[in-house]
Amino acid sequence: MNKNLNQKLMQIYNSMYEKTGPRKWWPAESKFEVIVGAILTQFVSWKNVTTAIENLKRENLLSVEGICSVDMEKLEELIRSTRFYKQKAKKLKAFCTHVKDNYDGSLEKFFSKDIYELRKELLSMYGIGEETADCIILYAAEKPIFVVDAYTRRVFNRLGIFNNEKISYGEMQKFFMDNLEHDVALFNEYHAQIDGVGSNYCHSTNPMCGECSVYDICAKNGGKKMAKQLWKPSTILNPVPVVMVTCADKEGKPNIVTVAWVGTVNSEPPMVSISLRKERFSYDMIKETGQFVVNLATRKIAVATDLCGVKSGRDIDKFVATKLTPAKATQVNAPLIEESPVNLECIVRHRLELGSHDMFVGEIVAVHVDESLLDEKGKLCLDKADLICYSHGEYWTLEESLGYFGYSVTKKKNLKRNKK
Ligand SMILES: Cc1cc2nc3c(=O)[nH]c(=O)nc-3n(C[C@H](O)[C@H](O)[C@H](O)COP(=O)(O)O)c2cc1C
Ligand code: SF4
Asked: pTM, whole model, 2 decimals?
């Protein structure tokens, strides 16, 4: 699950929920009534569905046996209010006959199946599409599957989440399933809330944004009411890289220090800066030797990265404590970390006293790259390295690529080619 997307989805959900409270879906007295509602509601208002359900109740036919036993003409007549009632009558009959023939008419037996088997079976029935199948699974079988629909597509495109008017049912569903806890109550209420926003405010033309519960965070309005606060100056630039810097004293005793105040500062010659507090054990080593190595951090060595940022080389040998392996560099005496896929050997060219930190500007004099990160043409694929970064006190992986350098101005047909 992508934590950022989960937070965003929950923010949207909470905004919707706060305005209306629970929408108490699905409005039905029994599981079977949910199923009938799910089948009849296609292309028609809920009011008309209610009329049909009331007719079936009055005739004592709102059950698997009832629908199986009633003759087709009478069934069509009872559900006439629901548009395409002839097809819908056929669908009801097909569903009920299936349950009668295969599960002795017991919904309980039918629903005891695994969620995806159940979905497959529902989709194989006459007239049951994805949305109807998922409504039945979520609201009648009470299993966690996310129901999406045209409102979901419209609302989440306008919110700036999908950015794809043609996004398919499956893609939308996967997005929610991937980024939300699989919780029946949450899925139930979330779909109901989206339906509420879609039907009440987010109309296809002239949406009533001023009254909408997600107005403040909706991209269509530029998330207008962002309500910014004025804070005192601080180092809020985010995210930042996090690296393990290796160094060695004059006798060659090595140390590792975790550094987040690190950045590329020049291309020719290639240069990076690292900022260190004077009290760091590593500070004197780097100041005296004028050498250090920047080792990129990955998911695999994230714990070691943290440890090297909370323990001092004054007290422990961090290579021993982390079980990281020192390897010989080519241009400097500081060691490389073997488990890091990319190592930059650096020679200090400048030291700037900035206040709390001294910034060492190092020229990169050698770069080591793990061969497994190269493709067949020798191109470096850093996405394979599972690098981590640091944001607001937490370590993060880099999950998703949004585009490449210059994709904003690349023609669509070239974009496709580039994707391949
Ligand atoms: C994520 C993270 C980032 C850090 N970034 C810096 C930094 O940029 N500069 C710095 O002086 N200390 C930084 N520290 C703190 C040092 O890594 C920490 O004090 C370390 O124990 C010093 O080790 P040493 O005494 O062996 O040199 C960071 C710590 C962590 C956990
Ligand atoms: S703010 Fe407007 S565009 Fe955005 S979801 Fe609400 S109604 Fe739709």
From this structure: 0.55
Q: Mean pLDDT over residues 400-419, rounded?
A: 75
Least confident of 139-143, 216-220, 333-337, 371-375: 216-220
Q: Which ligand is nearest to the CA of 212?
A: 2
Length of the chain: 420
CA 339 to each of CA 80, 240, 320, 396, 398: distance values in angstroms, whole numbers, following the listed order: 70, 21, 14, 18, 19
The per-residue pLDDT for 420 is 45
Instruction: State the average pLDDT over residues 113-123.
Output: 95
Say which residues have a Cβ less than 8 Å from residue 308's Cβ, sequence separation at least 6. 244, 256, 257, 258, 318, 322
Q: Which residues pair with 346 in a beta bridge?
A: 292, 364
Q: Locate the ligand 2 atom nearest the alpha carbon of residue 219 and give its number.
A: 4
Q: Which domains does the chain have, with CATH numbers?
A: 3-221 (1.10.340.30), 240-397 (2.30.110.10)
Q: Is the CB of 357 under 6 A from ligand 2?
A: no
Write down the residue that tokens 């002795």 correspond to.
104
If 0-12 CB within 10 Å is exposed, 13-18 middle and 19+ buried, where does residue 388 land?
A: buried
Q: Give per-residue pLDDT as tens, 272-303.
A: 999 999 999 999 999 999 999 999 999 999 99
Q: What is the dihedral of CA 58, 64, 69, 70, to 10 degrees?
A: 40
Ligand in closest contact with the CA of 278: 1
Report the candidate in 70, 69, 91 with the shortest Cα–Cα distance to residue 82: 91
Residue 55 CA to ligand 2 center (angstroms) comes to 37
**Cα→Cα distances 345→108, 336, 403, Å:** 66, 8, 30
Q: What's the rounded Cα separation, in Å, for the pair 64 and 389?
A: 57
